[in-house]
């Protein structure tokens, strides 16, 4: 948007909203909304506490493990689905179903299968992230231009070379896009898993702060989480753009 | 001619022609820092088909859209029938390069759309639309959807729609560029017949030299970066001859060659 | 992947087995019918489930047949129907509110740069961020009733619908808008006759995604806020270690959401995309 001839960046409106929040908070309308300034100062206090640090460690660990698993399973499965009709036919139904299914309903089952601990959260992250990674990897492999493969064959490339040098590289932008969306879903997974398990990581802290009506810390924690999610997505997007420079020419 | 020194053909009238319908005066267009058009001055005579021809990047489509009132000029004026243009108007109708047909509407509704926007009652606008659907040779396709038609047929819908609003000036932006070669030739022949029959003013943008020479009364050559008028040619071709004869006619081929000599410096 | 298997096609799968060259017939059938693969992939998963349950891989892992039996029992004694009647209330209310508000806001954001500047970042944050963390908050203000659960649905569904509607409007074919302008269409005509119809398929797809998010929201609400409806079935049967019933409830909500989304996708293809109708 332009104002007085200056271009104002889009995200700048968030500052405006923070200001509105501050005013509403100061007017003391509702205990749920403390002033933004006190949330931010609570945030600095929170970061210094041992309970936040250990909760963050647990959260990051569950997230990284779950995501690593989702990528390790999702990318090869997606590629296999893109290359082999039979794999596609067998898994297609389930992947398409779970990619938009309410997976939060599965968490109670995971809780009895894997106990009220980190394993459940790791599996939740995996389940939230894996399906979109599979679908995008599959789409990437399937839309490799046939002319590129024919080009490779006409120059005498072996099947293996065609696979590694043409198919995988051409599918890379889609695979990365899938991983980016997978990461965002994984963040939701780690939070939903921890909130439902409610005795580990951020889930425990959320439970604690909301029970004791400690709204400053509750919001501080939420904002740290939101900021981390946005940052993560921005980082992957940046990485994706560097890869995409050649994808544009397809 | 607005700029007679650029017209190499022996054109007698240096002053404005008696029956000028579209006047382009000192048109300049900048996109941010890029200069797309510089000092364009042109007159278009009533009832004639004029082609804007040039290599890509010469701003021919931009100029047509400025005349249509779809794109604002940075400076300069467009006058139609002596009135300055501020936006699209009922005396002009535009035919789009990508057809711009509504995929959710039938051929009939697409053709009648210009009249629908003007609030013409349904029965009346459908009658007009059916007439022009017949005119462009699409009878029987009234209830079809655009995706059921070939590229050439879709553009016939676009042309029928432009005719339905009964505008004086038809602006055609590379109307045949998405049509395959055989249909394109047929289309050019049909267009000439329509020009003959409808007695309207046509402004036609193309990048095909043969197409320009074949259909035009007058060809305006534009040079690129920034777009300027470089030459105006009036092919003196006997239109009453059969299409095959015209395409082998000496003067037709000479004009094609002349234009190519003028444009080859811009080829990559 | 189309999951709409009609019953007569499914029935034909069983009949093919009697032929002398079963493999050939099956191969022929598989080539022609997508429903064959739907049946096959269902059968494979259910078989794996049954085997895993028989080993058993965990004391809390019932077999497929136990789960189906439990499901049949819950259907016949009416518990499942009653549970869904409760679960669907906040879901429908929340989705309706999100649809009206979300499509409206999305259209405004798509049409106006100022609205875009003001609102888009907020919804981008809401969509990327784990909104689930905020679900416990609504109980403070709205208690544990229908309003709280409806709000939970809206919190998850609204950002998805808003952003998709906004993108739908921004991606309208600019040439169609130019066409409308060239025939002197007014701004209102432009919006009603070109922009909204052209955006309709994407608007509808956004609604579908919003409904998927709404299902997640309603389940979270029923698990977190207070056990009612299908969330109650899951929590209750878990607490009395009645795992087959619990699994049946979980599987049923996933199936219900999948069927709803598939039906909506069918509606979208059938009615909103005439260019894809002929297949």
Radius of gyration of chain A: 22 Å
What is the terminal-to-terminal distance of chain C?
14 Å
Tell me the helix content of chain C. over 70%
Tell me the number of structural domains of chain C.
2
Short note summarizing the structure:
With about 250 residues, chain A is mostly helical.
Characterise this structure:
Chain A is mainly α and 250 residues long. Chain A has helices at residues 13-26, 36-48, 50-83, 85-99, 107-114, 118-142, 146-154, 159-197, 201-211, 215-244; strands spanning 2-3, 6-7. Helix content of chain A is 79%, strand content 2%. Chain A has a two-stranded antiparallel sheet. Chain B has 268 residues and is an alpha/beta fold. Helix content of chain B is 35%, strand content 24%. Chain B is built from 8 helices and 10 strands. Chain B has helices at residues 60-68, 107-117, 122-135, 151-164, 181-198, 209-215, 243-248, 250-263, and strands spanning 20-31, 34-45, 49-53, 75-80, 83-84, 92-95, 169-173, 201-206, 218-223, 228-233. In chain B, the strands form 2 sheets. Chain B has a 6-stranded mixed β-sheet with strand order 6-7-8-3-9-10, with helices on both faces. In chain B, strand 9 (218-223) and strand 10 (228-233) form a beta hairpin. The longest helix of chain B is centred in the last third of the chain and has 18 residues, at 181-198. The radius of gyration of chain B is 18 Å and the shape is globular. Chain C contains 12 helices and no strands. Chain C is flat and about 70 Å long. With 279 residues, chain C is mostly helical. Chain C has 2 domains: 7-61, no CATH class; 74-276, Orthogonal Bundle (MetI-like fold). Residues 1-19 of chain C have low confidence and may be disordered. Chains A and C meet through helix 1, helix 4, helix 5, helix 8 and helix 9 of A and helix 3, helix 6, helix 7, helix 10 and helix 11 of C.
Topology:
The complex is a heterotrimer of chains A (250), B (268) and C (279).
Chain A: E1 2-3, E2 6-7, H1 13-26, H2 36-48, H3 50-83, H4 85-99, H5 107-114, H6 118-142, H7 146-154, H8 159-197, H9 201-211, H10 215-244
Antiparallel strand pairs in A: 1-2
Chain B: E1 20-31, E2 34-45, E3 49-53, H1 60-68, E4 75-80, E5 83-84, E6 92-95, H2 107-117, H3 122-135, H4 151-164, E7 169-173, H5 181-198, E8 201-206, H6 209-215, E9 218-223, E10 228-233, H7 243-248, H8 250-263
Helix pairs in contact in B: 2-3, 2-4, 3-4, 6-8
Chain C: H1 7-15, H2 22-32, H3 34-54, H4 64-76, H5 79-111, H6 113-128, H7 135-142, H8 146-170, H9 174-182, H10 187-224, H11 229-239, H12 243-272
Helix pairs in contact in C: 2-3, 4-12, 5-6, 5-8, 5-10, 5-11, 6-8, 7-8, 8-10, 9-10, 10-11, 10-12, 11-12
